[in-house]
Amino acid sequence: MEVTFRKNLSRSYMCIREQKQPVEEYELQMLNSHCIPGFLPMQMIISEGKRRYLYDISGKQQMEDYFSGKKIGYGELKRFLISIQRACLNLSDYLLRENGICLEMEFIYVNLADDSLQFTYLPCYEKSLPEAFTSCMEQLLRKIDHQDKLAVELGYQIYQLCIRENADIRSIMANVLGESISIAEDINVRGKTMQSVDKRGKMCSARVENDEENGEITNHKKDNKEKEEKTNSKIEIRGKAKGFREIIEEKQRRMTEATEKFLSSFTAIGSSLFRTKTKKRVAKTCKHRKDVQFSEELKIINFSEEVDVSLHPTEILSVRQGGTLGKLTYRGLHQCADFQIEGDSFLLGKNSEQADGVISAEGVSRLHARISRKENRYFIEDLNSTNGTYLNDVALEYHEPQELKANDKVRFAAEEYVFL
After folding, report:
1. Are 98 and 169 in contact (CB under 8 A)?
2. At a CB cut-off of 8 Å and minimum separation 6, what does 82 contact?
3. pLDDT (tens digit, 9 = 90+) per residue, 169-218?
4. Beta bridge partners of 339
5. Alpha-carbon torsion 76, 77, 82, 86, what sign?
6. Among 75, 53, 84, residue whose Cα is nearest residue 145
């Protein structure tokens, strides 16, 4: 399966070329003629006897890119599970197979307009849904915020259910999420009653009848209110604890900075005293020496500490030899900052919580581009930004890295930089 990306003036597409024939031919007609909720819109193109599937990814980012630089918390994980549940329910309305859902991270997209998830339906996909879901959960567990206990508990609970023999996605969701959040919404939207709702209704009515016979009718609204109050109090306590932890970390950081500042100043004072004593010792030696040549040598040693640095600036060997500093220098009109590329992956964009280099300018996307370093070589790639990333005035395709050279012009939307 070959995956490429295309972009025109207004839309972005993921293009998949598959050598195999689709499992069911009618699926192509269904996907071509309908926009299925929770899935990327698809168009099929036949050229040179080969089929290509175009998926519209305009205004979306791969889930892998969306969570770059941050961890997955409880809210994001639960939203992901509910999205899979709804996607499976929607497929049944269009007579499509659940095994057609591709749950590999590079095929799951996040709509940046409302942060909703959209999946890719592949007509040629043959991996079973439980197997694909288990593999997906293994990847998510590596990205979960392990400081978030609720997220860790939920993630590992689902994974334990996935690896059981004859695991069923619907039963896993029902067991983990409890009462399905989406069932009531699906009933209102689609206007049909599901069998699971009927069973739950029968069980609830039987319980009420039993309580009435025993004279022990329970006020469910009151119980729910008490549970909600307890939950809110726990959340409040957790929030206060988190705030207290942040205060302690801030104090520790300030103490560390103060200690480092003291040590640096102490080192500077010691170095200054050492140089002063050395100069006095050398000067005293010069008085007792009549050898002019030896005196001149001592002067050279003595004044080597007093050379004018501005006349002999420090030079980085890699630059003199034609290498790069790994730095973006701003050349625009909005007084944006310069960036020193640090680490093997450097994100650029407007989102200050994720981006390593924040560009707060109009037209720049939340996560606009990424610069990667491999063996002292730098590569830049676009992250499906709205207004594009340009290298020497040539637009970059999504996830197609291009190597950066010294003095290359890089433009994020309308903001121009020079790579050094």
Report:
1. yes
2. 177, 181, 182
3. 778 887 777 644 444 344 343 444 344 434 444 444 444 444 444 444 44
4. 328
5. positive
6. 75
